[in-house]
Design brief:
Layout (H helix, E strand, L loop, with lengths): L12 H5 L9 E17 L5 E18 L15 H8 L8 E8 L1
Antiparallel strand pairs: 1-2, 1-3
Length: 106
């Protein structure tokens, strides 16, 4: 597939496919942490089931940035928290979790 800019007569795929924003945004985030409550049923010494809640960290101290007009990759093994990080940055986390850290869009 060939994309050609008719105004200048040269190939400029980036401008033709994705027009440049009038207000580019730099996203930066620092020391993002996210933890969720996990309920466990434990049998105590008397043989009764006791419900306890343990807080599990899903994202631990994650920092980074994304520049306008550039592709940014988030890499990690299965279960590393990639989707959780994207949900935190896009403000799609559930109310049951606890999120801490700093993010900035300029």
């Amino acid at each position: 597939m060939k994309i050609e800019n008719k105004v200048e007569g040269s190939i400029n795929a980036q401008e033709s496919i994705m027009p440049q924003s009038k207000q580019p945004v730099k996203l930066s985030f620092n020391d993002i942490e996210f933890e969720i409550p996990i309920a466990h049923n434990i049998t105590n010494s008397e043989g009764k089931n006791v419900k306890t809640v343990i807080r599990q960290k899903i994202v631990k101290g994650c920092s980074g940035y994304a520049l306008p007009g550039q592709t940014t990759y988030i890499m990690g093994s299965s279960g590393a928290g990639k989707t959780s990080l994207l949900n935190i940055l896009s403000d799609r986390v559930s109310s049951s979790g606890d999120c801490q850290g700093n993010s900035d869009c300029k």
